[in-house]
């Protein structure tokens, strides 16, 4: 885990408020908070990711308690009962959306940090109040006369505790209703009454204390919210008690920094000064001039975009990626308002990394990738921005304050020029012109309907009906699996026997569709993930994951309970299997590049298969890859593995990607934007040694592949070769198995393993020699002995001609003729018949006639008599030698007799 907090400066935090002014940096305040609670027995826990792993309904983590949601309700156990965090939060998109307000107010942010302390059934109200009050007034030395608190209207206990612990009078404690003093995370989840601490920024600012008619002014600012978590809110509206009363507090780091640094505006704290200063320098804008609002927008959005990209969220047209794109494009438009015509925001990333990288090392690790992603998105957007703004200005020329821009125009800007709706709204806000949102939505719906029509014309509709329908009604499933292998999702659809159903029962097989998943759906040659899903009283195994038109279908067998629509589920990918798949996929890219270098540029990918246990790669090449070439390819790929360099993913336009030299599958249809995976240190000025368009999952560093070993090479069609390879443990195990086989062979040979090959070839020579000798011996034995005399016993004279008729066994059919020849030689003149009784019961016969007699007898004619006797027919050959056979070898004597009779 990363350690999110630096401890610098913490020791000097005990000072009066006045002293603290301008002395205490945001970084100091963050670490001072965490150190204080750690000193008071709390576990310092790292910030959880912005994309929540444990909540299927939340777009981004928006409070410190999100990562502890299930700890409060008792579902999840942790080894501590109190904790403290500095949590990164994004409030843009989804339920809490502050995007539109950023730049217009002193305190709205799309990205902010929430400092918090938590008790999971450990301490409750009294200790929470005591810890908060002591930190503010003692450790941080805030003037208690500037503080006020609120309590929930009938929380007499909290009222009494504040009086006792803080020693403040009822004049400084305000009772407020549920609207402001009952906190809940969302429609469901842990909740409870709360108590808020307010800070008075001073008379020079207009506003009144909480609960007063002037409370909306900016003088009294809420700095800390203490939630007394007592209940869990359920979807059906009911509320039950938590297992034990708990505490969740949240303090915005930017707000408390403003207080501690003696400024009123969050954007005047040191961290924002640095970011705004850089933005001003890069755009040439005056910090105190008219462009200040745009500088604030850029500074704020730079933080959210960088943190989201560092977590692997990339700009897209769906879900979280789209919220990111909206943030990025809004910032980019403000950069152009400041006069920038070229990409400029990406140049500000290093300042952010300098300011926040120590507390959040993911920024340091991701710096190159963040910079590149921002630069590319800027380039892409700037191409259409000018034209879009021109259209906007033309279309609104005739409009005045209070008018409304047509929804269709806003949609055209969105669809053709990449203007998110809120960007158009933002651009018109200063002129007080609104956008007809209903018209915009209608134009969007019409476009979707047209897209649907083109689907149904594609011919696949019949079998794919369900999936098309789900893609249409649910939209694509959000894939979280680039970053995580465990996440929660909510059941959106269930399918059994090809039909939508409301539930899957124990023992049922079917498909589950959720709104977001870490499971990879089979595509691009990479197999789908398998694993487990679990929920309240329900469990299922996922045997495979498919992807249909962007909808991920988890094929499951329910092992326990009942799966129903709307259920939240924890989805757990089989980690070991996925790791092996990652390694194999990354290795495929390395082999691809190595093959191209070794064999030539004609090597184009024709297909691939990436499974957990192996990989294969098909490519254009007209002849077999030689062992030397294969060794060179393997060496090259392993050299990149040994570099252990980071594997980087970017999102790029297809054309840009191809221009950058990224390898793409010829003829493959890509969307407008593609993931580009780069690995290995670049040899030129490219993005990496291997750069490919790829939507698959990959290792983090090339070293994670371990090693790659090519195990087979073959042809799969005209001009297409296939190599198969193993990586990591599979490659190692195969190597080990082969060594074990050689060792065992050496043991059998009683030789050293280096001698095995020589010994085996000597053995083979020996066997051949012995076989030859054995054949000779068998022939001799077959003719009744070893001497010429022994054979002569069988000679007879028929009609004045010497006739030899013999039956033999135990020799090969091909050797029968040889026997006939040697008998002919021995007798000098005559006729020879040799019948072999085969082991299979068949007979093979050869007949020889010495040359002096071929005018009288033709072997080719005689043979027919012999094969007929053996129950066969035919046979053939020359006058001096013929061969044939029949099914019945036991009639060998009849065959010999038939020839005798014919002489
Ligand atoms: N959850 C509460 C809030 O977000 C306190 O942390 O304000």
Short description:
The chain has 26 helices and 35 strands.
Summary keywords:
BirA Bifunctional Protein, domain 2, binds serine, 903 residues, 35 strands, alpha+beta, Elongation Factor Tu (Ef-tu), domain 3, 6 domains
Structural notes for this entry:
With 903 residues, the chain is of the alpha+beta class. The chain folds into 6 domains: 26-264, Bira Bifunctional Protein, Domain 2 (BirA Bifunctional Protein, domain 2), CATH 3.30.930.10; 271-398, no CATH class; 464-573, Elongation Factor Tu (Ef-tu), domain 3 (Beta Barrel), CATH 2.40.30.130; 580-735, Threonyl-trna Synthetase, Chain A, domain 2 (Threonyl-tRNA Synthetase, Chain A, domain 2), CATH 3.30.980; 751-786; 791-902, Roll (Diaminopimelate Epimerase, Chain A, domain 1), CATH 3.10.310.40. Helices cover 38% and strands 24% of the residues. The chain has 26 helices and 35 strands. The strands form 8 sheets. Strands 1, 2, 3, 4, 5, 6, 7, 8 and 9 form a 9-stranded mixed sheet that branches. It has a 6-stranded antiparallel β-barrel with strand order 13-16-20-19-18-22. A hairpin with a 2-residue loop joins β30 and β31 (801-808). It starts with 16 loop residues before the first helix and ends with a helix. The relative contact order is 0.05. Mean pLDDT is 89; it is low at 1-22, 456-463 and 785-792. Residues 63-65, 116, 183, 225, 227, 248-250 line the site of serine.
At CATH level 3, the topology of the largest domain is BirA Bifunctional Protein, domain 2
Bound small molecules, by name, code or SMILES, are:
serine
Q: Biggest β-sheet, characterized?
A: 9 strands, mixed
Indicate the CATH class of the largest domain: Alpha Beta
What is the general shape? elongated
Query: What percent strand?
Result: 15-25%
Distance between the terminal alpha carbons, to the nearest Å? Answer: 101 Å
Low-confidence stretches: 1-22, 456-463, 785-792
Which structural category do the helix and sheet elements fall into? alpha+beta
Helix content: 25-40%
Compute the number of strand runs: 35
Question: What is the CA-atom radius of gyration, in angstroms?
Answer: 42 Å
Number of DSSP helices?
26
Integer count of domains: 6
* CATH superfamily (homologous) name of the largest domain: Bira Bifunctional Protein, Domain 2
Looking at the overall shape, the CATH architecture of the largest domain is 2-Layer Sandwich
Task: Let me know the average pLDDT.
Answer: 89
Cofactor: Zn(2+)
InterPro entries: aa-tRNA-synth_II/BPL/LPL, Ala-tRNA-lgiase_IIc, Ala-tRNA-ligase_IIc_anticod-bd, Ala-tRNA-synth_IIc_core, Ala-tRNA-synth_IIc_N, Ala-tRNA_ligase, Ala_tRNA_ligase_euk/bac, DHHA1_dom
GO molecular function, one term: tRNA binding
Enzyme class: ligase
């Amino acid at each position: 885990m990363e350690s999110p907090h630096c401890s610098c400066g913490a020791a000097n935090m005990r000072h009066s408020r006045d002293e603290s002014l301008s002395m205490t940096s945001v970084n100091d305040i963050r670490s001072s908070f965490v150190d204080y609670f750690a000193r008071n027995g709390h576990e310092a826990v790292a910030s959880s990711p912005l994309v929540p792993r444990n909540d299927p309904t939340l777009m981004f983590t928006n409070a410190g308690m999100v990562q502890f949601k299930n700890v409060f309700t008792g579902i999840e156990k942790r080894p501590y009962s109190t904790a403290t965090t500095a949590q990164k939060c994004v409030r843009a998109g989804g339920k809490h959306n502050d995007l539109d307000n950023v730049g217009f107010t002193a305190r709205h942010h799309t990205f902010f940090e929430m400092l918090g302390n938590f008790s999971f059934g450990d301490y409750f109200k009294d200790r929470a109040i005591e810890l908060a009050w002591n930190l503010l007034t003692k450790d941080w030395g805030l003037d208690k006369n500037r503080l006020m608190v609120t309590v929930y209207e009938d929380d007499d206990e909290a009222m009494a505790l504040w009086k006792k612990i803080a020693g403040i009078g009822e004049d400084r404690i305000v009772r407020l209703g549920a609207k402001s003093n009952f906190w809940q995370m969302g429609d469901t989840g842990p909740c409870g009454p709360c108590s808020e601490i307010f800070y008075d920024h001073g008379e020079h600012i207009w506003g009144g204390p909480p609960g007063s008619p002037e409370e909306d002014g900016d003088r009294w600012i809420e700095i800390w919210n203490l939630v007394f978590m007592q209940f869990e809110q359920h979807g059906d509206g009911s509320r039950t008690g938590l297992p034990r009363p708990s505490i969740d507090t949240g303090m915005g780091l930017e707000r408390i920094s403003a207080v501690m640094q003696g400024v009123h505006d969050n954007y005047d704290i040191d961290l924002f000064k640095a970011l705004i200063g850089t933005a001003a320098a890069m755009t040439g804008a005056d910090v105190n001039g008219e462009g200040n609002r745009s500088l604030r927008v850029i500074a704020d959005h730079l933080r959210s975009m960088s943190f989201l990209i560092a977590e692997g969220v990339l700009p897209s047209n769906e879900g979280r990626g789209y919220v990111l794109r909206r943030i990025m494009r809004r910032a980019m438009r403000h950069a152009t308002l400041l006069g920038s015509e070229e990409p400029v925001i990406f140049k500000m990333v290093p300042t952010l990394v300098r300011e926040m990288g120590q507390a959040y090392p993911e920024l340091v690790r991701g710096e190159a990738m963040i910079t590149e992603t921002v630069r590319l998105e800027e380039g892409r957007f700037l191409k259409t921005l000018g034209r879009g703004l021109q259209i906007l200005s033309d279309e609104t020329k005739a409009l005045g304050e209070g008018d409304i821009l047509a929804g269709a125009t806003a949609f055209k800007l969105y669809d053709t020029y990449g203007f998110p709706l809120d960007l158009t709204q933002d651009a018109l806000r200063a002129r007080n012109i609104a956008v007809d949102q209903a018209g915009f939505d209608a134009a969007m719906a019409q476009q979707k309907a047209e897209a649907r029509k083109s689907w149904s014309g594609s011919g696949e509709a019949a079998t794919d009906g369900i999936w098309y329908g789900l893609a249409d009604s649910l939209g694509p499933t959000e894939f979280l699996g680039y970053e995580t292998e465990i996440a929660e999702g909510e059941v959106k659809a269930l399918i059994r026997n090809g039909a939508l159903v409301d539930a899957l029962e124990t023992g049922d097989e079917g498909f589950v569709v959720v709104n977001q998943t870490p499971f990879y759906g089979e595509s691009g040659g990479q197999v789908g993930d398998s694993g487990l899903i679990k929920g309240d009283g329900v469990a299922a195994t996922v045997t495979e994951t498919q992807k249909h038109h962007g909808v991920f279908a988890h094929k499951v067998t329910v092992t326990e309970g009942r799966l129903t629509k709307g259920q939240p589920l924890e989805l757990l990918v089989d980690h070991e299997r996925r790791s092996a798949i990652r390694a194999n996929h990354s290795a495929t890219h390395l082999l691809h590049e190595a093959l191209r270098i070794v064999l030539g540029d004609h090597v184009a990918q024709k297909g691939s298969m990436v499974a957990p246990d192996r990989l294969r790669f098909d490519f254009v090449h007209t002849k077999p890859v030689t062992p030397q070439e294969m060794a060179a390819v393997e060496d090259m790929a392993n050299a990149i593995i040994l570099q252990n360099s980071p594997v980087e993913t970017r999102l790029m336009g297809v054309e840009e990607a191809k221009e950058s030299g990224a390898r793409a599958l010829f003829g493959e249809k890509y969307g407008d934007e593609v993931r580009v995976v780069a690995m290995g240190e670049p040899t030129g000025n490219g993005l990496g040694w291997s750069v490919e368009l790829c939507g698959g999952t990959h290792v983090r560093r090339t070293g994670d592949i371990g090693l790659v070993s090519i195990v087979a090479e073959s042809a799969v069609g005209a001009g297409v070769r296939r190599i198969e390879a193993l990586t990591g443990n599979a490659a190692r195990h195969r190597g080990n198995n082969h060594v074990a086989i050689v060792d065992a062979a050496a043991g059998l040979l009683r030789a050293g393993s280096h001698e095995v090959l020589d010994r085996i070839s000597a053995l083979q020579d020996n066997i051949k020699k012995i076989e030859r000798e054995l054949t000779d011996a068998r022939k001799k034995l077959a003719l009744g002995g070893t001497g010429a005399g022994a054979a002569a016993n069988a000679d007879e004279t028929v009609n004045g001609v010497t006739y030899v008729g013999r039956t033999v066994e135990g020799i090969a059919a091909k050797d029968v003729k040889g026997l006939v020849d040697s008998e002919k030689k021995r007798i000098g003149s005559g006729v020879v018949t040799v019948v072999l009784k085969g082991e299979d019961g068949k007979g093979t016969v050869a007949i020889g006639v010495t040359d002096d007699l071929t005018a009288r007898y033709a072997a080719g004619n005689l043979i027919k008599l012999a094969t007929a006797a053996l129950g066969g027919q035919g046979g053939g050959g020359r006058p001096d030698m013929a061969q044939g056979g029949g099914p019945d070898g036991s009639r060998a004597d009849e065959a010999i007799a038939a020839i005798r009779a014919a002489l």
